[in-house]
Write a structure and sequence with these properties.
One of its GO terms (biological process) is lipoprotein localization to outer membrane. Helix 3 packs across helix 4 and helix 5 packs parallel to helix 6. The protein has a single domain, classed as Rossmann fold (3-Layer(aba) Sandwich). Strand 1 and strand 2 form a beta hairpin. It contains 7 helices and 10 strands. Helices cover 35% and strands 28% of the residues. Bound molecules: adenosine-5'-triphosphate. Adenosine-5'-triphosphate binds next to strand 1, strand 2 and helix 1.
Length: 225
């Protein structure tokens, strides 16, 4: 009833060069508050397409997406922007950090945009960054940080506004295996500590097994492996 995410009958196809590919063929998925779900599937199976739909980043879908009880299809552009800002956090494979701002500022900005005052936004940014081991890198810009450090910064930014649901697309996909393990463990610890739910796309079964539940995209539908 109070699921943070409920997707029902979601379909999406792309037409290119006269050929239509049905990427999502009726996806059903429910995520409970605080639950961390791994979205497993090989390259090209539609994981990013599904996350973009749930992230309200793209149109062109049929079916129902309810986030925190709100049906996305019934919202206009402003409503979707508000829901995205209030309920969702995003972690991408390639960080999408603001290159001209330092670590603190990258985590402060989304909070200030949402109306937080500067002092509390800064305190929370420092708390999140420190709990990810970046307490000594607060004034560094993304280009002055390693790949693992940049991804920790992206995790802190995604959690800045205490989202009920974090969407992560291959969050450790461009890190070496050891760093990926460490950053994923920190991500999971922080998400659990914050009580957020998460939907985490990965093609890595070993990493998926560390989450609360695994769902697998197969031929456009979700199955339990
Ligand atoms: N804008 C688009 N136009 C045409 N085809 C697209 C578009 N976006 C995605 N596709 C196709 O949809 C399929 C699924 O892509 P998607 O990026 O969702 O897969 P994925 O599982 O996230 O893959 P990866 O792990 O490689 O990122 C692919 O075959 C892709 O070519």
């Amino acid at each position: 009833m109070n699921d943070i995410l409920k997707v029902a009958g979601l379909t999406r196809s792309f037409t290119q060069g006269g050929e239509t590919i049905e990427v999502l063929r009726g996806v059903d998925l429910t995520v409970a508050p605080g639950e961390i779900v791994a979205l497993l599937g090989p390259s090209g199976s539609g994981k990013s397409t599904l996350l973009q739909a749930v992230g309200l980043l793209e149109g062109g879908f049929d079916g129902s997406i309810r986030i925190a009880g709100e049906e996305a299809a019934r919202l206009d552009n402003d409503g979707r922007t508000r829901l995205r800002r209030d309920a969702l956090g995003f972690v991408y494979q390639f960080h999408h950090l603001l290159p001209d701002f330092n670590a603190t500022e990258n985590v402060v900005l989304p909070q200030v945009i949402r109306g937080a005052d500067m002092a509390s936004a800064q305190a929370r940014a420092q708390l999140l960054l420190s709990s990810l081991g970046l307490g000594h890198r607060l004034d560094h810009r993304p280009s002055q940080l390693s790949g693992g450090e940049q991804q920790r910064m992206a995790v802190a930014r995604a959690l800045a506004n205490r989202p009920a649901l974090v969407l992560a697309d291959e969050p450790t996909g461009n890190l070496d295996e050891r760093t990926a393990d460490v950053v994923l463990a920190e991500f999971l610890r922080l998400v659990r500590g914050e009580g957020s739910a998460a939907l985490v796309a990965t093609h890595n079964e070993r990493l998926a097994a560390k989450m609360d539940r695994v769902v697998q995209l197969q031929e456009g539908r979700l199955v339990s492996p």
